Amino acid sequence: MKLSELKRRGSDGFGSGHFGASRGPRTHNGVDLLAGTGEDIDSPVVGTVTKLGYPYGDDLSYQYVQISVEDYDFRVFYVEPSVKVGDEVTADTVIGFVQHLGSRYHGIPNHVHFEIKKDGDYLDPTPTLIAMGG
Ligand SMILES: [Zn+2]
What we know:
By secondary structure, this protein is mainly beta. The protein contains 1 helix and 14 strands.
């Protein structure tokens, strides 16, 4: 699945999936996209896998994939990676499979989290998704 094919998460009992939404003292730095557990996720861009990371230091079962293009880092959270650091990917490369978020947030609409960083700042991914047709 392309990220642009996924519906955006609106507001629910756990918060809003929009960029800039409140998370208590913090801000939501990406866009959430509804996705079923096990669905395959394509790379959002043509680039290089530069990191496989962990969103939660206290639970290493969750992972994210980072793809870099020049100064931009594109990160897709809550996927079991099917790529490794150094891989060149295109928009048709499956980068991983959607994980089950309900184990951490019981009852939350299952989703992936998409964020874009440039020079340490978070950019709103919404225009990128729209440009991709989402
Ligand atoms: Zn999110």
